[in-house]
Known about the structure:
By secondary structure, the protein is an alpha/beta fold. It has eight helices and 17 strands. The protein has two domains: 2-124, Response regulator (Rossmann fold, 3-Layer(aba) Sandwich), CATH 3.40.50.2300; 141-249, CATH 2.40.50.1020. The chain has helices at 10-23, 36-45, 63-69, 86-91, 104-117, 123-135, 187-194, 242-249; strands at 2-6, 28-33, 51-54, 57-58, 61-62, 76-80, 94-99, 144-149, 152-157, 161-167, 170-175, 180-183, 198-200, 205-208, 212-217, 223-227, 235-237. The strands form five sheets. It has a five-stranded parallel β-sheet with strand order 2-1-3-6-7, with helices on both faces. A five-stranded antiparallel β-sheet has the order 12-11-10-14-13. Strands 15-16-17 form a three-stranded antiparallel β-sheet, with no helix packed on it. One of its GO terms (molecular function) is DNA binding.
Amino acid sequence: MRTIIIEDEDLTAEDLGLTLKRIEPKTNLCARLSSVKEAVSYLKTNPSIDLIFSDIQLGDGESFDIFRQVPPKVPIIFCTAYNQYMLEAFQTFGLDYILKPFSDDSIAKTLAKYRLLQQSFNPNTLEMVHSVQAKHPVESRKKSLIVISGDKIIPIQLHDIAMCYIEYDNIFVKTFAGKDFLVNKSLEEMEHMLGDEFFRVNRQNLLKRTAIAFANTSLSRKLILNLHVDHPTKISVSKEKYQAFIQWLEG
């Protein structure tokens, strides 16, 4: 397991490295990086890694600045003394979020989570999946979506998703059971994944056909949608999508 540590505190970085070696002896610590600038330079020239452990607050900025410049291709485990960055961490390919001071138990749990999802991040597996999808796009479509809630990895069946929506710049899915989950994908990625049974009615909302009960016309000549699931805000169809929506609704 080729791993790098992004941490500007020497003792913390050393402790984390020793903990990883103790729990997972096959860990190959490729580098310890202590700044945004150093990490960006390393990731641009050394892409062959499997896992990143990263602090959030560094001397020259936040680690999120690193991944804005070099989009991550492997999971990131964020280790920090602050809990206010959790949502942004999971939007940045974050696999886990560990509060300092970390323990052997917390590191062991996050490595177990990594091993559980390891196949999903294997480049060879991804290449094979893309090849199969090119030949059989319908058959190879995913059947579930992985979401992370606290320390739990939860598979959500795609047929259970009623809608996707944006709230405070975060993407959530809502199931027909009325449960909401934060996802680490853009609304465009969800639209591509979910297929023709879903329609992007406006910039914030992607709805499944069977989630729509009926539509009302408003004074502004917009369609206001009534759903089979409870949702705190009214959802309307943008004017430019009116005709396309009606055609899609007919199936």
